[in-house]
Amino acid sequence: MNIKTDFCLKPFNTFGIEVMSKSCAQITSSGDLFELFEAGELQKQEVLVIGEASNILFLTHFDGLVIMPLMRGKKVISENESEVILKVNAGEYWNSLVDYTVERNWWGIENLSLIPGKVGAAPIQNIGAYGTELKDVFESLEAFDMKKGEIVNFNNEECGFGYRNSIFKNEFRGRFVVLSVTLRLSKLSNPNLNYKAITDVFDGKKTTEISISEIRDAINKIRESKLPDPQKIKNAGSFFKNPVVESKTAEQLKTEYPEIPVYKISNTKSKLAAGWLIEQCGWKGKRIGDAGVHDKQALVLVNYGTATGKDIFDLSEKIKNSVLDKFGVELQREVLVV
Ligand code: EPU
Questions:
Q1: CATH 3.30.465.10 in the chain, residues?
Q2: Which residue out of 133, 165, 195, 299 has the highest number of ligand 1 atoms within 8 Å of its CB and is therefore the one to mutate?
Q3: Least C-beta-crowded within 10 Å: which of 62, 223, 224, 250?
Q4: In the sheet that 291-293 helps form, which strands lie side by side, from edge to edge?
């Protein structure tokens, strides 16, 4: 396997930040990982696994080994009249997988249409959009343990999925390389129209009359209207998480700001819309040098060209501070800062 040194990461992170890594290994099978382990490469330095790096902000050069899993391929493990168990290798593009399942009328991930990134990254932050999260269809994953040099399996429960969260962002951060992800998809029509923007599109239509491709198309349209096209404006999707607060806090804010979107998530907790909070602080469409806040969705920070990771990070700090000052709510970054 070929390990490249002084590797330029600019084309390999969706923020388009110009940084280098000390070395980079492009992996085409688990055998490559065993080889790296045997050679001590995984133990002697810092290791960072990236898919499309669509959720990473590089602050500076990475003084370690970047691993890029490139394994492609999908395999039906089993199926019956009502469902299919599909194993997908980590190097597949997530949105190509969505297209593949939509073409076959396999329901479950159509609401996750147009999410950038690769399949191996999907479980790390339990990708989610329009009322669906990966965990809803996730069966298991196979991963390489860089500490022990062995392949292990994780089922749904073992991944500890939460809102944009999993065990791989916490206690197992940096320890595993995801090799493949197995999904349980439905062959029976099963539209998820819970999200308001989707309900509105299909208002008055019978659920049984809505096709899977209509849902995918509706979601693509909504995303394209709000989110910047990564080919044109560099970005990493939502920069912050939607903050989860005590419902009491949300109610207090609602009396002061009747328009504030509040989503109740349990008896005691509510989620606020970070994009709304940021917009209210006047940041939507603002730009400092080449670092900016997208003009159609304030939760998305963008690089208009030559912004450095630090430029974007500094802008995010200013945004955090103003939301804290105005609403008393602390935003947490969704992107991984390296
Ligand atoms: N809003 C504003 N101003 C803004 C942005 C949003 O007022 O600039 C308001 C909207 O009007 C709406 C509410 O905030 O009332 C929620 O907005 P939206 O439906 O656009 O979704 P979001 O909460 O901002 C989340 C995800 C997105 C996902 C959408 C749709 C997070 C951090 N983000 O955004 O995920 O596509 O819901 O489900 O949970 C991503 O993770 O990269 C991502 C794009």
A1: 74-225
A2: 299
A3: 224
A4: 234-238, 300-303, 291-293, 287-288
Burial of 94 by CB count in 10 Å (0-12 exposed, 13-18 middle, 19+ buried)? buried
| Ligand 1 center from residue 86 Cα (angstroms) | 29
* Burial of residue 83 (number of CB atoms within 10 Å: 0-12, 13-18, 19+): middle
Range list for CATH 3.30.43.10 in the chain = 2-69
- Candidate from 115, 132, 238, 263 with most ligand 1 atoms within 8 A of CB, to mutate: 238
Please name the CATH architecture into which domain 2-69 falls.
Answer: 2-Layer Sandwich (3.30)
Q: What is the pLDDT of residues 57-111, one digit of tens each?
A: 999 999 999 999 999 999 999 999 999 999 999 999 999 999 999 999 999 999 9
Report in angstroms the alpha-carbon separations of 8 from 5, 17, 62, 82, 338: 9, 10, 10, 46, 15
Atom index in ligand 1 nearest the CA of residue 274 equals 24
* CA 299–ligand 1 middle distance (angstroms): 7
Active-site amino acid positions: 164, 238, 334
| Range 74-225: architecture per CATH | 2-Layer Sandwich (3.30)
The predicted pLDDT at position 156 comes to 98
pLDDT 10s digits, 28-52: 999 999 999 999 999 999 999 999 9
Q: Could you give the residue range(s) of every CATH 3.90.78.10 domain in the chain? A: 234-337
| Structure confidence by residue, pLDDT tens digits, 233-257 | 999 999 999 999 999 999 999 999 9
Which atom of ligand 1 is nearest the CA belonging to 226?
Answer: 20
The pLDDT of residue 279 is: 98
